[in-house]
Amino acid sequence: MSAAHADVLPRSDGSEPDGPAGPDPDEPIAAPGREDRFIGGLAESIGGSLGDHAVRRPRKIFTPVRIVLVLAMLTFGLHWLQKYPCQDAAWSNWSQYRYFCYTDVVALYYAEGLDQGKRPYFDHKVEYPVLTGALMGVIGLPVHNYAVTHPNTINEIIWFYNGTAFVLFGFGLASVAVALALRRRRPWDAAMIATAPALIVTATVNWDLFAIGLTALFMLAWARKHPWVAGLLLGLATAAKFYPLFLAGPLLILALRTKRWKEALITVLVGGFTWLAVNAPIFLYAREGWNEFWRLSDERGIDWGTLWYIGAHFPAGVEKYGIEPFTTLGGNIDLLNKVYQGLFFLCCLAIGALALLVKRRPRFAQLAFLVIAVFLLTSKVWSQQFGIWLIPLAVLARPKWGAFLAWQAAELIYFFSFYGELLTVSGKHIFQEWVFVFAASCRWITLAVLVGLVVRDILRPQNDLVRRTYDDDPDGGPFDGAPDWPVLEKLRFWERRRETPADPGPELPAAATA
């Protein structure tokens, strides 16, 4: 047992965790049916969970890693079939909504001028961060050039979609592979990512899997104690989608808690320089195109499905919708920006205080999940595919199936109701507004519950399945096994009061006590 953590939790099988030497190659992997009541209940239908004295035969072909990777490929295959009706862009009578197959990858091939050979940012403004725009151009411009030089030989939009999907599926598989690498004793946790229902329906709605894969690789590099590589990947991920920037916060908070600043500062600074290096050419030579992402982010109003939309469209009577202050904020974008950004900032302060003051240091993945989750819960924009940002983080933070699947079910309900809402506003009435508000509320509430469960695991680390398997924090890199900065212990005054024995008062003579 690690000397730095005298309160290290036992594994789920009752044995002691391994030390720095790592796991025994003959050690059995964690069995979800024995530690997860939801999976254990399902296992009863096929004979029950693994027994205490069961003998595991060595697997040569059907190893957990291979099974999980095959499941991930099947998930992406199902997604490709689900989007197949929309690949040729021959959308008529709102077929992209009726078949639930709309994707920005197809729509923006035309909207961003790629079908005319326009270079992203230089010849046409792009509403995405620089690296995503570059990916669009790297795939789209050669496809268009080939279509021009070889007329009537290919359908360029189908080629563009499938080329983009192939790259995005690669980054999606990378995120699953990273989860397997970070959880070698818990490979079945990665099956939660590989089979996530939201991934089946939204994987290529936009280019988000690009940033998700880069973010996963950043976490792997950090866990393997390569701060320079981690910084490079963090900068690239932020240049593809802005949300990975928020992961710098948990790094710095944990660096403060452990007083291990060097690696964290290297990662954050290298990430910042990488982001600047990627953005500088576009900023200098295509300033107007570069500004488009920031302009739209600032001027965009309340988006469908957000907390602010729910409040602005909440049923308030017969054919009446909206409650204050949400209705007022909907008409004042500047005030809305200040309110949601302020609320997110306060939530980050609360997460930071939790990380510093709780008795046992939280794991990096737990804090990373909390920060990105509260960003979505408070943001004015929550597109249908944004939920897949959280899938790898949620699994690394809390690998329990019950609440995870409840949240994923809510994501599916929202997905289908979202297309019903699109048809309704397009003139084909599907349902009343309260149905969509209900679906959006289910998504918001189930994610908020998952946030609460992760917070509970931080407050009660004995409930944390990852710490039942590992010594401390397999994702923590330099923080793994690090002792706390002693100064922080002085801030936990309530623990000192509880641990200090009551004063028995002056000792009385034996005669008096008699």
Automatic annotation (TrEMBL):
Region described as Disordered: 1-34
Keyword Membrane: yes
Membrane topology of the entry: Multi-pass membrane protein
Sorted UniProt keywords: Cell membrane, Membrane, Transferase, Transmembrane, Transmembrane helix
Transmembrane regions: 61-81, 128-147, 159-182, 194-222, 228-253, 265-286, 339-357, 364-382, 402-422, 434-455
Subcellular location as annotated: Cell membrane
InterPro entries in UniProt: GT87, UCP010361
Family: Belongs to the glycosyltransferase 87 family.
Protein name: Glycosyltransferase 87 family protein
Organism, as annotated: Luedemannella helvata
